[in-house]
């Protein structure tokens, strides 16, 4: 907002609007990417997709596949704090096929 002192009002208002829109655009984009990573279990040890399937997909198809995985994860309502304590990708496969949650059976041995 320092440019209100330096520039004319006709320049400062559009510049402020541009900066605010850019700021919120960047924040919302990174927030969406972070949620996709968090709910898909992308930071865990398990592989999300088979390597052959993943290498055949383009950028848009890969993003769509990850978003589909997030939709399944949100239906399962598995807390993010438990994602790394269970065999998460295996559980998502079961949910995707229409099965039910079995968190006790999927706990990793160290927990």
Q: Can I get a quick summary?
A:
With 111 residues, the chain is mostly helical.
Notes on the structure:
With 111 residues, the chain is an all-alpha fold. 66% of the residues lie in helices and 0% in strands. The protein has helices at residues 3-6, 9-40, 51-56, 59-76, 80-83, 88-96. Helix 2 (9-40) packs across helix 4 (59-76).
Draw up the topology in text:
Blueprint: H1 3-6, H2 9-40, H3 51-56, H4 59-76, H5 80-83, H6 88-96
Report the sheet-strand fraction.
Answer: under 5%
Q: Give helix % range.
A: 55-70%
Largest sheet: none
**Backbone shape:** elongated
Mean pLDDT: 78
Derived structural class: mainly alpha
Separation of the first and last Cα atoms? 51 Å
List keywords for this structure.
mainly alpha, 0% strand
